[in-house]
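User: Show me sequence and structure for the first protein, then do the same for the second.

Assistant: Starting with the first protein.
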Amino acid sequence: MKNIVVVCGSGVATSTVVTNKIKDWLKEKGLDSNVKITQSTMMSELNNIDNYDVVVSTTTIPDAVQDKVISGLPLLTGMGSDTVLEQIGEKIKVD
């Protein structure tokens, strides 16, 4: 099971939109049964970051966790969303 956390400033508004787009894409690709998605705030998850394979963010992220982070902003704007979904797909590939 792969774990994705979607974070935004409040853990509610934009993370819900991004989470739904990721869920739709995972279902379309047949990957939805292998992935757990959590919504939260970055500050709430900072100490748990190692529990996640991917961090998708619509907010500022501390430098210490940048290697796991994918910007979720394109999923809100629609510009570059395919690239973001492909990046998520690469990070959740089963080894």
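Switching to the second protein now.
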Amino acid sequence: MIFRDVREGRPYPEHGLSARDWARIPPRQVRLDDLVTTKRVLELDRLLTEDSTFFGDLFPHVVHWHGELFLEDGLHRAVRAALQQRRVIHVRVFDLDLLR
């Protein structure tokens, strides 16, 4: 199994982070099998595009909430890493648990 779980939608409350806010969070390594996806649909054309991060963040966005790591943005990058047989990926993690 690539991911810990596959779900549809974000179970956590809206965090309101902007792209600039995400950019301030330093990337760290996370195991792919610790991530819970928030999207069930994978778009093959986006998966195969070499420049898919040209206008966005190089690092996927993960929200830590209730002890779980939710992959909010970067599903295609995570799947590409898995296809390259990598078990870890660099992501930006926002800890929503700290705000509770």
